[in-house]
Amino acid sequence: MLKTCLSFSRRTALGLMTTALVSVAALSTAAHAEDAQGFVTAFGGKLVGIINSDKSLSEKRQEVLPLLQDNVDIATIGKFCLGRYWRSATPEQQAEYLKLFHQVLVNAVTDKIGDYKGVSFRVTGATNTPNGELVSAQIMRPGQPTADMGLLIAKDGGMKIVDMIGEGTSLRLTQRQDYSSYLARNGGNVATLISALERQLSHRH
Amino acid sequence: MTAPLGDSDNRPETGSAVESRTQRRGQRKGGRLLVGLTALLSLSACASWRNPPPKDPEALADYKEANDPYEPVNRKMYNVQMWAYHHALRPVGKAWAWAIPKPIRNSIDNLNQTWYMPTVFFSDVGAGKPRRAGDDFMRYIINMTLGAAGFIDVATSLGYPHHDSDPGLTLATWGVPSGPYMFLPGLGPNTLRDAGGYAIAQGLSPINYVPRGYGLLTFNWAYNIAGVLGGFSSHIDEIDQVEQDSLDPYAFIRSAWQQNRQSQVDAIRNDHRATVPDWYN
Question: Measured on CA atoms in the order B25, B31, B34, B38, is the torsion positive or negative?
Fold first, then answer.
């Protein structure tokens, strides 16, 4: 009797503990998910605010720059895009490459600002992936079909965007294929890539 | 950015003989596909056209990710396509977009999309997705009637939005392996499986079974040319941007196309919606 009672209470205690643990875990994931979604909502809201304002295009570009620097982990993306060639690069080359990559990425975003006037967006959900939390959103533009996109948020040391997915295509993966293919066809020397990026940037201005 | 190169395929062949103009669309495309495939296969027979797998494990990982053993041939084909793009397709597409008002271009896009619906329908049936197939069926019926034979997209506003599907995707959901990546001039990025799917799609297009006759042929040609120009001209900016922004546009397009294709396969696989549409929403 005592034994049954004991085992019962033990089982109850175990059960209670498990329930408590599970709900704590559920709560914390929910809070996490909300965090990443909240982060994207806040970031997107600021971005859309700048894009839809009545300021000039150059003013808008000026304002977007710090927003990107604060919320996008450009160095991590850059490192990812260099793939296996990152380790073969000298520290100087790495620094030089990251500086150029930073500029390339910022240009890629600011070049599009003019096309997105009247844009609005809606965060639709989030899923956990091994690389971080993937927040999905819908982009609405006047006269254009709604576009689905995803932002991958890494959380080590504050939330930052580490990838963007549009039409099922990961930006950093595509970019890595681009760079690694270029390098493979040009002797695998990162210096070649650096000068190509320099050329690319100088052609724009 | 995946569609443009694929879209550019049925462009008008200004230099082709009058006889070939009177051929039906299916034969024309099938013929071109055959030429492309024959060229590819005969070229790839030579060892030098094939990149051997690299020894270095990391390079091997990249090699496998790209899934492009016939890269040397594919790059040649890509160059052919881009030559045609810069010398013919781009200027003609630009002129088209300049000359034809946007609402008319939109109607032509709608027409093409609606008339492709039977192919999408059979693909979704093949993939065992009744809800998707039902949407296709309703889209086709609504747009062919209320939508004036397909010129107006009424179905989207009635709750049947468009989605993409084709026999290549269906084969993928069956577990047919993609085979190596191929770049076919005229058809753009492809795999062995998707090229096969393309041939099946031609067989599933009702317009290819329309009896011959002068009026119909004229219409068929107008339909094809206008459709292609419409689809193509709206992607010129994207192609230009890829060429400007990437160091190796060929690799960029290859990766983006493969990822996009995979996401389409996943979308079909993960579509477990109930068969009955949301009538009351």
Answer: negative
